[in-house]
Predict the structure.
Amino acid sequence: MFSKKTIEDIAVQGKSVLVRVDFNVPLKDGVITDENRIVGALPTIKYLIANGAKVILCSHLGKPKADNLAPFTLAPVAKRLSEILGQEVAFPADVEVVGPNAREAVKAMKNGDVILLENTRYRAEETKNGEAFSKDLASIADVFVNDAFGTAHRAHSSTVGVTAFVESSVCGYLIQKELKFLGEAVDKPVRPFCAILGGAKVSDKIKVIENLLTKVDSLIIGGGMAYTFLKAQGYTVGKSLVEEDKLDYALKMIESAKEKGVELLLPIDHIVASEFNKDAAPVVTEGIDIDADFMGLDIGPKTAALYAEVASKAKTIIWNGPMGVFEFENFAKGTVAVAKALADSDATTVIGGGDSAAAVNILGFGDKMTHISTGGGASLEFLEGLVLPGIEALNDK
Ligand code: AMP
């Protein structure tokens, strides 16, 4: 199934290898507050060093504006990466990314050396997949390695454009791992296969729902998106989040699940409040209906128990999106219950990136999951059944 070449399929000894990594780390006053993404890139970087490549790393960081580049420099990442690797990571701070400083630094490299280029988004053409920047990047490299799963759904110069101008383009270990776990879960799951979808809006997940309904045995829906499904069936949802223009769609999906023999689960009780506020008093409803003055902010205890039970019977579970407003302690119980059910399960558990990945890590269940994706948008597009351009552009085996 996995048909793209990897770093192990090509010779790297003595070659200049441009590696697109995802060093888009959170920074506070120039200090990295979460270095998971740096750690995620280490297996590929270490393999290339050990195999005598000249390792030229590149990444974007945030969304720099032409008149305010400095806060988005990758300098702090180069420093931290040097400490983690225990070897110098040269940082040719070049506003052109591949300008005179970078070219000189590359020329001076020996096998096993590592440099990090400046933030690729210092060049405005990066996000437009501009050819001049793609050629600049390729001009300092023999081969290209993409290991940035988090941006694999974007066709940018450093993810797609550059591949047209190098000898070969392959994926690194992180992308390989993401595709293995996400791909195997979706395409050859051990059954029963259960998907759990939450988050704010139905409209964001329409294609994911449609694609997963053709694959899963059960589909669990929680979070803000559940209320559109409940209202469509005639329940009262009070002031809960509802997408009026998606009511027909929700009914169609309920029908489609029936036709396909997919068990579709919706909340049977809720934790509600009279306002959207972290200090709002949480009230547990008796059943599915919500009174006019209240809004659903979390699944209720009966629902949490039901979802945990269904999940515990599955052999493959994919989870994307929180069950409620988990950022507010009073409305995090449903998300915690689902995270705990997955942590206790011996099924293959795959967590889509973004909020559910953050929730699982914050709750300390990270190492209990089979795989936590590093890409929010990319993993969603993958679950939609789309081919990610940054992966499509790589050489086939
Ligand atoms: P998403 O990015 O679509 O996965 O949505 C995540 C967001 O959905 C989080 O910020 C949650 O606070 C929010 N959310 C989850 N449940 C609800 C709800 N019942 N009402 C409003 N927002 C919600």
Q: What stands out?
A: The pocket of adenosine monophosphate is lined by residues 199-201, 204, 223-224, 241, 296-297, 321-322, 324-325, 327, 354-355 (CB under 6 Å). The mean pLDDT is 96.
